[in-house]
Amino acid sequence: MMLCTENTPSNHNQLDEVENLASKNGASGVETDKTESHDVTTPLERICTLPEHVADRELTTNQKRARFIARDVQDHAEKAPAGLVLDSQTIAKVITAAEGTKPHTQTVARVMDFLEKLGKDDVEQTKRRGKKLVVVDEEAPDRYHDRCDRANDQAPTESVMS
User: Fold this and answer.
1) How many whole angstroms separate alpha carbon 141 and alpha carbon 108?
2) What separation, in Å, do the N-terminal and C-terminal C-alpha atoms of the chain show?
3) What is the pTM of this model?
4) Phi, psi (5° rounding) for residue 21?
5) Which pLDDT value is given to residue 22?
6) How far is the C-alpha of 92 from the C-alpha of 130, rounded, in Å?
7) In terms of Cα–Cα distance, which of 148, 116, 127 is closest to 46?
8) What pLDDT is recorded for position 155?
């Protein structure tokens, strides 16, 4: 049985708003071919650069959860030939550890969806042996972590919302 999330115009608009918000926050780079890894930016990389107070104000709870997981994905994921793999059970454990309560199954599915949508080509959702998985490109976590470190050292230089 595959879990579905609502696919409404408001959800698409909200995702577009998050992508725009992240790009307005001063994240440099343009989406290009993956071989130029320093110039590749995804919305997930850009939301990692948001200062905590901006993320708290602008992101939905599930987007914040996806951001939290992306920032330390290497600590939680298993290494596989396809990349770094997180199953729904692992994501649920990470959320439980961070928040102190076990998330609903649908919450985990939505966080997985946000990881895939915001991660663009770096993140893929798949199903193996009946388990829903998120596979992250092996190079992406370094970029997420590097961007998070830089963002923590810099104060925002411009308004996020125009």
Assistant:
1) 20
2) 43
3) 0.67
4) -60, -45
5) 56
6) 17
7) 148
8) 43
d(CA 157, CA 75): 31
Alpha-carbon dihedral angle through residues 21, 24, 29, 35, given to the nearest 10 degrees = 10
- At 6 the three-state DSSP class reads coil
DSSP SS3 for 125: strand
Contacts of 78 (CB under 8 A, 6+ apart): 84, 85, 86, 90
pLDDT digits (tens, 9 = 90+) for 102-135: 999 999 999 999 999 999 988 999 998 888 999 9
**Could you give the count of Cα atoms lying within 13 Å of 104 in the half-sphere of its Cβ?**
6
Mean pLDDT score of the chain = 76
pLDDT in tens, 42-80: 898 888 888 999 999 999 999 999 999 998 888 999 999
CA-to-CA dists, residue 122 to 13, 119, 138, 141, 154, angstroms: 22, 5, 9, 9, 25
Task: Enter the tokens of residue 31.
Answer: 């989406």
